[in-house]
Each structure stands twice: as structure tokens, then as C-alpha cells.
Amino acid sequence: MKSSAKNIEMTSFDDLFGTPPSAGSGNIQEIALDSLFPFKNHPFKVLDDQTMEDMVESVREHGVLVPGIARPRAEGGYELIAGHRRRHASELAGKTVMPVIIRELDDDEAILFMVDSNIQRENLLPSEKAWAYKMKLDAIRRRAGRPGKGNSGQVGQNLKGKASVEIVAENAGESYKQVQRFIRLTELHPRLLQMVDDKKVPFNPAVELSYLTLAEQEVLLGVMEELSAVPSLEQAKRLKKYSQEGKLGVDVMDAILTEERPVPAQVTLKNDRLKKYFPKNYTPKQMEEVIFSLLETWKTEHE
CB-hemisphere CA count at 13 Å for 135? Predict the structure, then answer.
């Protein structure tokens, strides 16, 4: 939807938060942990893994070095925009407060910063990227028809004339098609999406399965469990096709998942047969190069 995003102005970090303040400026506040609440539908998981253990140890020894970002809540306390893992680490380290910068932000500004402050982290799960990209895309589309904030800066390159999904892709360092594919994962049944995170269902088949209705996905999960089978990419495409034709039932799912998968063709060249065609001092690598060179010539002649 290029027309919907062509005039959008992306507010820069400095426009939203100002230059990161010093500890003595009064802009950083020590906020009680029980007054800091998670961002609504925060897509990034806070896991008790080795990285968290290392963070807890650092907080215990040095405190939280980078302040979180939060905004006031109408019902009291503050909503964390950035700093969920730091808050959890502080709690595990026995702290009761955490340094936080408080800013007044609308929902879309908060979403944009929350996603951008987390999306470059390493080892993000597919579900985290999927929901983060979707949240940011929706926020950008909502902002597309609004006037910019004065002469606010733009993040990265000039965004005029670009579709919303292209903006998300550029900021994330992904192709826009890959961003679209990640966003498709948000249409998956939660159990299927968890299987993608757990690497039990590959990414590409999962994208195809996202086109099934939730009711069909629920049935498919039962068939997969009963057969101890996971659809291949080709099988997932066929399941999608039958779904779009309104013909996908449990019998079709069962038939597709139990079909015998073709065994890839293999050609074995025995060494003793090959040797008679090559000088005795030829190495296996040299023999391979000659064989592929001859095959290329043969292919060209028969095209």
C-alpha cells in the first residue's frame, strides 16, 4: 500500500526522548519495580536463560547501567517501553528500584520505539519477530495519515514514497518479502507457532500453514500428533491449496501426511571405475573438476 505510507514522518530517537541524559540531570528516576508494568502485548520474551543469569550477575555487581524507558499509566504506575529484561534481572538480583526515563508517548510512538530497541537483538525467536513486525507495521499505517511533529527527523533514509512494509523491512535489515512472511506467522495457531519457535516445524512450511483457518489448524495439530508427522514444504502447499478450495478435511490431511515421500535420486561413482579414465597422479579433486567440466559441455550441447 504505497499510497498509505508515502508521506509518513518517522520520529527520531532524539525527538522522542531527547539526548540521553546524565544521571545528575534529574531526568532519570529511580522507580520502584512494583510500579513498572509490562508493555501491552509485548512480543519479546523474558527468559530465564544463561543470558539472563549473566545480566542478573551484572546488575547485582554494577546495577542497571542503561536506564529503561517508560510512560505514565492512567491507572497509576508506569508502562515499560524498553527495559523488561533489565527489570526482571533487577528483581532476581534482589533490587527494589530501577533507573528509568519517563516520557509522555502515544501508543504508536511507544510501539515504534519498543520494537526498534529490541529487534536488533541476536537470537530472536520467529514468534518475537513476527509479532514485533506486525505491531510496528500497524503503528506505521496508523501514523501514515497524520501530520508530522514539526520538523521531526526521520529514521534512516528518506521514507517518502515507500510502502509501510518497506519501512519496517529497511529498519530491520530484512527484505520486505521476508517481513511479510514473518507477519504471516501471526496467523498461526499458538501451538503451531510455538512449534516453530521450538524448531519442530520449519519456517517455510509454517508460512504456508498460516493460510489455513484456525479451525483447520486445530484439526491438523491432532493429525500431526497422531501420525508423529510434520508437513514438508510441498505438503504444506497442498494443504493450503485444499483449504483455499474448501476441501481440506481430516481425511485429506491424513492422506497428505501419510503419503510416501520420494527418495532423492543418488548416483554413486565407484572409484575403481573412474581411475581408468584419469592419469594415476590425479587427485579426487582434479577428477571431480574434470567430470563437472565435461558435464557442463554435455549440458550445453543438449539444451
Answer: 24
| 37, 198 Cβ separation under 8 angstroms | no
List the 97-102 sheet strands across, edge first. Answer: 28-32, 97-102, 68-72, 78-82, 36-37
Query: Cell numbers of 247, please?
Result: 476441501
Phi, psi of 248 (to 5 degrees): -90, 105
Q: Are strands 68-72 and 28-32 parallel, antiparallel or unpaired?
A: unpaired
Biggest CA-to-CA distance, the chain = 85
- The single-letter code of the amino acid at 295 is L
What does pTM read for this prediction? Answer: 0.69
pLDDT tens figures, 69-111: 999 999 999 999 999 999 999 999 999 999 999 999 999 999 9
* 8 A C-beta contact, residue 216 and residue 246: no
Q: How many CA atoms lie within 13 A of 221 on its CB side?
A: 16
